[in-house]
Design a protein that fits this description.
binds guanosine-5'-triphosphate, 8-stranded mixed sheet, 20 helices, 445 residues, binds magnesium ion, alpha/beta
Length: 445
């Protein structure tokens, strides 16, 4: 399905960020390219896409994440903000004396929206009137009459007249004292010259303050070309996105806005006259990008492992600067993040040594070691070699353990260090560690 392809592609790009083992220049560039491709495929204006992706890349590569936010979340936040920026601010129709003309293809929701908009403006104390300029669909006049009746708003129309312009002229005359006149026009199955000619003529006659494009949210890819054609014909001042109550995420709206430069004013969220909501760009992009899914994805990634700490430890291991303090940090992390085995596999000193059935005992032992390390001085943590017999006794006393426990910990540290040394001299194993980090990063992977 072509529909919603843009939203899907953007969601995929974000997932790539969420699933990446590490956020670096390469992944940022790759994702920026993905987004660029997705937007170009959605017929979004090339200049706009280039500008947006340039700014996106620059920000993602140079801006530092605020405290408490991972680089992964930060990049996702920037992507999200840049897309919101394209949509721009929303615009509400001002409650004042004016003429509003609704245009759009067949069945997009023009007539229904004329009623919804009337109701909103009526509530603000304005005198409304409707003109039925749809001369193509026989039932169009009745449909608008019914809406008018419900709202107690006068409707002008003439089901026998075939020329929309004549209806418009007569209607405008009749409603010259009303505050807001809303003009409903006819649609077509597709963009046709006859439609363009008709709405151009109507627009010239009506001199409407607002020329609103009514568009079904499920429209997807055709949104761009369609919006462009209507914009060229009557110079669109705003977009109303209908049927947002369905499953559609309205990805096409991006194209429409990009094409016309006109803001989205409202969204239709149902068939009833009160189902019109102010457009909220932030909420809209969240739903289009599936931020809910994304959020849980990010949370899952964090659950598996505190990635930054793991990476830092791995880097220290590789540079041979693995202190007791690092081992301590690693343990703290293990304690906090659960599935011990999964994480333990990443630590060369533990890999293989910690068997599945020993797992619980190991966890106990880790707890004890942590207590022991708490009794060590900073210097001892940085340089465990400095811990001689007398210090071992002091530490064991301080931690309420035995000298044997302390020695066991030191032995474990030495083993880890040795293992790391051997491991670092082994390219194949080093690559495997990196791979493992990636694997452990992906939930269930
Ligand atoms: N669920 C839902 N249905 C809507 C919404 N807006 C319009 N519709 C329905 O979409 C159908 C077409 O709406 P109309 O208002 O007749 O569309 P139109 O653009 O005037 O159509 P033509 O006059 O035939 O070109 C109707 O069944 C409406 O009830 C909306 O926001 N949500
Ligand atoms: Mg209609």
């Amino acid at each position: 399905m072509v529909l919603e392809k843009l939203g899907q592609s953007l969601r995929d790009a974000l997932k790539k960020v969420a699933n990446a083992s590490h956020i670096d220049q390469a992944i940022v560039k790759e994702v920026v390219k993905d987004i660029q491709r997705a937007m170009l495929q959605a017929d979004i204006n090339v200049k706009l896409v280039v500008e947006m992706t340039k700014s996106l890349e620059k920000r993602a590569l140079t801006e530092k994440p605020p405290a408490g936010m991972s680089s992964r979340e930060h990049v996702i936040k920037i992507i999200y903000e840049e897309i919101v920026k394209i949509l721009g601010a929303s615009k509400e129709i001002q409650p004042k004396r004016q003429r509003i003309m609704l245009v759009g293809l067949y069945g997009q929701g023009k007539t229904t929206t004329a009623g919804k908009l009337s109701k909103q403006l009526q509530k603000k104390g304005l005198k409304l009137a409707l003109i039925a300029c749809d001369v193509h669909r026989p039932a169009a006049y009745d449909q608008l009459m019914q809406i008018g009746k419900k709202l107690n708003i006068p409707v002008y129309g003439d089901p026998t007249e075939k020329k929309a312009i004549k209806i418009l002229k007569a209607g405008l005359k009749q409603f010259k004292d009303d505050d807001v006149v809303i003009i409903d026009t006819s649609g077509r199955h597709s963009l046709e010259d006859s439609l363009i000619k008709e709405i151009k003529e109507l627009s010239q006659e009506a001199q409407a303050d607002e020329r609103l494009l009514v568009m079904d949210a499920t429209i997807g890819q055709q949104a761009g070309p369609q919006a462009k054609a209507f914009h060229e014909a009557v110079s669109i001042t705003g977009v109303i996105l209908t049927k947002m109550d369905g499953s559609a995420k309205g990805g096409g709206a991006l194209s429409a806005v990009a094409e016309t430069g006109a803001p989205i004013c409202y969204i239709g969220v149902g068939e009833h006259l009160e189902d019109l909501e102010k457009f909220d760009p932030t909420r809209f992009v969240s739903s289009m990008l599936g931020m809910g899914d994304l959020q849980s994805l990010l949370e899952k990634a964090q659950e598996v492992m505190d990635e930054d700490t793991a990476e830092e430890t791995a880097r220290k291991m590789m540079s041979g600067k693995f202190s007791l303090r690092d081992m301590y940090q690693q343990m703290e992390m293990l304690d906090g993040v659960g599935p011990l085995q999964k994480v333990a596999q990443m630590i060369p000193g533990f890999a293989g040594k910690v068997s599945e059935k020993d797992m619980e005992a190991s966890q106990e032992r880790l707890k004890k070691w942590k207590v022991i390390m708490d009794s060590m001085t900073e210097g001892e943590l940085d340089d465990p070699k400095s811990i001689k017999s007398s210090r071992v006794i002091r530490i064991s006393r301080g931690s309420g353990t035995t000298p044997k426990d302390v020695r066991e910990l030191l032995k474990q540290y030495n083993n880890s260090k040795k293992a790391i040394k051997g491991f670092m001299g082994n390219r194949k194993m080093r690559r495997q560690l990196m791979k493992q980090m990636k694997m452990d990063e992906a939930p269930g992977g």
